[in-house]
Amino acid sequence: MQNNVCETNKLRFVYLIKPRDFSNAGDASANVRAELEKHGIEPDVIRRVSIICFEAEMNIVLYTKGGKLIVEVDDQKVDIQALDKGPGIEDINLVMTPGYSTAPEWALEYGFGAGMGLPNMKNNSDVFEIESEVGKGTVIHSIVYRRKNEVKGNN
């Protein structure tokens, strides 16, 4: 499901992501990319946002009981939030280690679980934050600035 709201110089997209919904996995991030292209967002920003959204979407599909991907665009930045109802992350520093994976065997059989999702999200973000509570879920917040002269944040 998608909600689009267009305010003055601001766009907002909300996608509900279902767990293990492989037939629709990737649709939200593809839709975000198409909307950003349609609205003339800078190509490098689109590339980075697409990577972040895809990785977030796949994490929700693979590891959680479902969640939301929220993308807000204004003149300065693209703000991305991935919120899930899932097991939560016990050790955030550990899961940020490139190559570390908690993927179950069935996910590996689909070709997922290389342990690069969260590091890819961080590497493509100007600001990247994770909050997680075991047994409740995770919130990932990412910002990609649209202006090259913006200073990188919590990366």
From TrEMBL:
- Name the InterPro entries on file: HATPase_C_sf (IPR036890)
Indicate what this protein is called per its UniProt record: Anti-sigma regulatory factor
The upper taxonomy is: Bacteria, Bacteria division WOR-3
